Amino acid sequence: MGIPFKLPDVGEGVAEAEVIRWLVKEGEKVSADQPVVEVQTDKAVVELPSPTAGEVEMIRWREGDTVPVGEVLLEIRQSEDGKTEAAATAEAVDRPPSNNLSEAKRKRRRRVLAAPSTRRLARNLAVDLHQVTGTGAKGQVTKEDVRRVAAALAESRGEVSSASHLIPKPVKPPVPSPPPLTGSGTEEKSGGQAEAFSDEPLSRTRRVIAERLLFSVTRKPHATHFDELNVEGLARWQARLKAQASKREPRIGYLPILLKAIAASLKWHPKLNAHFDEEKQQVRRFNPVSLGVAVDTAEGLLVPVLREADQKSIRQIAAELKELTHLAREGRLAPEQMKGSTFTVSNTGSLGGRFATPIIHPPEVAILALHPVEQRPVVEDGQLTAGWRMNVSLSFDHRVLDGADAIRFTQTLATFLTDPGNLFLELS
Amino acid sequence: MLKSMDKMDFKVVLPEGRLTDEGRCVWKELSREKKLDFYRWMVQVRQFDRRSILLQRQGRIGTYAPMAGQEAAQVGSALALSKEDWIFPSYREVGVNMVAGIPLKQILLHWMGRVEGNRFPEGSRVLPPYVPIATQLPQAMGAAWAAKMKKEPSVAVAYFGDGATSEGDFHEALNFAGVFRLPVIFFCQNNQYAISTPFRRQSAVPTVAERAAAYHIPGIRVDGNDVVAVHIAMEQAVSRGKQGEGATLIEAVTYRHGAHTTADDATRYREAEEVEEWVRNRDPIHRLEVLLKAEGLLTDADIRDWEEASRQVVEHAVKEAESVPAPAADHLFAHVYEKMPLDLIKQKRDV
Predict the structure, then answer these.
(1) For A137, what's the count of Cα atoms within 13 Å in the CB-facing half-sphere?
(2) What is the 3-class SS of B111-150, one letter each residue?
(3) How far A182 CA sits from the closest chain B CA (Å)?
């Protein structure tokens, strides 16, 4: 692992910069303070000098990419003697060029012309500047442009929700009131009254989430399919696993089994295990199944990626999931650990709820929300009885998938959950 | 502005490194050590300035205000001051502070946003850098007034740029200084741009020095890139102050080679030819180097050695400053409010 060179705030309070030109290549030797990259901020084009002498190990962004301040631009392997340098060269030959690895994930985005105050307004209003047509000089985006788009977005959101009477809306529980702020002098001033409101800007993580969701919900025509799955076999098998659990073998919950069943189902329905390229209007189907698993953290929803879930055992999935969830909650996920998913699973199981309209994680084409596994009254052979059921909500990009695809997928999933024995049939 | 370079009160070293006629008399009076001091300090200051810009680009210090090009104005004036004199610097006075004995480590810590960077050595009479424009002028005037009342043999110097002359504080400070004949020196480095606003868009009067007449104090205009001329002007002002003759306004006409700060792009408002002229033909260090070599006081080997020694000094300071342990995150909330507002209390709790 080389020394990471993070994009510094080269202006006063700039949030991001565009990579204009790389002045070095991967594998190239650099001396300390040698300029390695040219970036453009809201204010100026500047050359960034290498903080150390060594060899460029990995370049993380392409020319034209917009990089948030604090992200790693490149990694430099520090040279102390010839030995480490030789080792570094040998390794570099073996490794595929890193740019290709995540190429599919990276969207090439040109930097939009806009004043810093306009950028801030856009961030506050959750407007993606790339979606705004600038009316200023040289196509510069003005504050009016941003406000116009924000108003249009708000309006279209209103229309969508009124037209979506077919889709049940999630019923939110009453919002718990925030804990009162303590130790403030202003409370006395206003006669013992607590403040009527408090303003809180979005955190950086939350802003990224906001931008991505807005893009997805405004660009992808979402449709959501709800289904109730018979999970008798899953519930019984998991109960047996629980009974067998020992110190040596940690208990396996529902989620790892569900993820395995989802991976197996996606092999049958590869249309859902895909990305949609907006520019080329082209669907790329993936052979391996890499599942994004939405994790609820203090910072907001993070989506670490469980790679090649179709190739892994349930036990491996359980162990890896535990590790990823832990890292996410600690805020220690590396950016790579959140890239490259081909399908996303949002597990609301532990929190409850029956229906949801999950928003697709672009550039993917579908997302599955899992609701609690629970006993419900069911009718079997004309008799009312108790049965194990689980609801699922599957949102899909209606441009590339149809309702029938969604229904077939959840039906396949049901076969594995009604009787997990069916997973045996998928063993290679 | 180049035309107005002729309107100097006196010149010593010309841009090409030749002495003027009146300069020859002045030069003869200077000791060998003093001549070399001018040079060594300017080189040391430039090395520090260059390194600071790189450190900023690597995210190791915060926003920095480059000063390359203004070494003569800063070093020449600061070398005319003594321990008992008060210095009220703006944020660009890295060179002044170095000459005044502020350790480089402290200067770096300041640019790292560390409050420790403003803790100067015991007995130092240098104030922390003033970031708001021109607030230091009335304060320097006040310090001079105090010294006068206490009958202390010291002067107070306010360092500022041409932009500060457009502020109300400039008028107030000079007016009091004129009325009460205070031992204060208003040292203006006119680098000709207030960020991006050229001097002619700030002032109908063509020079800063002329304004002194309105306050009945002497105004001296020197080539700010002529270190000896700056030094002589400052020595005269100090001597006037200490002999009870009152305040002086000095205008040192200079040019910053780089941008206003590391967040600025000077190519957007300055012509390339203009920058080229000042960097290539009017550099303060180059002209002294030529003169010292011609006088046999400096060899190419000396230059290399001194540049290397200066680099080492800077590297050592960088190591020292970077090894200072980081403060706790909630230190961010210290020193601003006596009673913190609600939103800050909440933010501090969340840190």
Answers:
(1) 1
(2) HCCCHHHHCCCCCCCECCCECCCCCHHHHHHHHHHHHHHC
(3) 8
Which residues of A are tagged catalytic?
A: 398
Contact between A46 and B57 using a beta-carbon 8 Å cutoff: yes
Taking 80 as the threshold, does the pLDDT of residue A193 lie above it? no
CATH superfamily of A220-426: Chloramphenicol acetyltransferase-like domain (3.30.559.10)
Peptide bond into A363 cis (omega under 30): yes
Inter-chain residue contact A186 with B342, CB threshold 8 Å: yes
Give the nearest chain B residue to A71 (CA atoms): B59
Q: Which of A20, A48, A76, A197 is most worth mutating to test chain B (most B CB atoms within 10 A of its CB)? A: A48
**CA distance from start to end of chain A:** 36
Partner-chain contact A184 B342, CB within 8 Å: yes
Over the stretch B97-150, which tens digit does the pLDDT of each residue have?
A: 999 999 999 999 999 999 889 999 999 999 999 999 999 999 999 999 999 999
Q: Spell out the domain ranges in chain A.
A: 3-101, 112-172+198-210, 220-426
> Which residues in chain A touch residue B339, judged by CB atoms under 8 angstroms apart?
185
B341 to chain A, closest Cα gap in Å: 7
Query: According to the CATH classification, is domain B3-350 in 3.30.70.3040?
Result: no
**Chain A residues with CB-CB distance to B259 below 8 A:** 44
Q: Which residues of A touch B262 (CB under 8 A)?
A: 10-11, 46
Q: Which residues of B touch A14 (CB under 8 A)?
A: 263
Is there a contact between A44 and B342 if contact means CB atoms under 8 Å apart? Answer: no
Whether residue A195 and residue B60 make contact (CB cut-off 8 A), yes or no, is no
What distances in angstroms separate CA A368 from CA A161, A226, A230, B29, B206, one per listed residue?
20, 10, 16, 87, 72
B56 interfaces chain A, CB cutoff of 8 Å: yes
- For residues B167-180, b (16+ Cβ closer than 10 Å) or e, as one string? bebbbebbbbbbee
- A86 and B CB contact within 8 Å: no
Name the residue with higher pLDDT: A96 or B70. B70
Partner A contacted by B330 (CB < 8 A)? no
Give me the percent of chain B exceeding a pLDDT of 70. 98
* Straight-line distance from the first to the last Cα atom of chain B, in angstroms, rounded to the nearest whole number: 51
User: pLDDT tens, A341-400?
Assistant: 999 999 876 677 899 999 999 999 999 999 999 999 999 889 999 999 999 999 999 999
Q: Could you say which architecture CATH assigns to the domain A112-172+198-210? A: Irregular (4.10)
State the pTM of this model: 0.59
In degrees, rounded to 5, the angle at the alpha carbon of residue B122 between the alpha carbons of residues B121 and B128 is: 55
Q: What's the complex ipTM?
A: 0.77
Q: Are A263 and A289 in contact (CB under 8 A)?
A: yes
Q: Where are the domains of chain B?
A: 3-350
Chain A within 8 Å of B113 (Cβ-Cβ)? no
* Residue A137 in tokens: 């000089």
User: How far does Cα A404 stand from its chain's mean position?
Assistant: 26
Which residue of B51, B52, B58, B91 is the best one to mutate when testing the A interface, meaning the one whose CB has the most A CBs within 10 A? B58
pLDDT above 80 for A55 = yes
Whether A198 sits inside 8 A of B342 (CB atoms) is: yes
Tokens coding A262: 């989802």
Distances (CA, A) of B232 to B76, B238, B336: 8, 10, 41
β-strand A383-397 against A222-230: which pairing, if any? antiparallel
In the CATH hierarchy, which fold is given to the domain comprising A3-101?
OB fold (Dihydrolipoamide Acetyltransferase, E2P) (2.40.50)
* 8 Å CB contact of A7 and B262: no
Number of Cβ within a 10 Å radius of residue A401? 23
Residue A110's pLDDT is what? 63
Do A7 and B263 make contact, defined as CB atoms within 8 angstroms? no
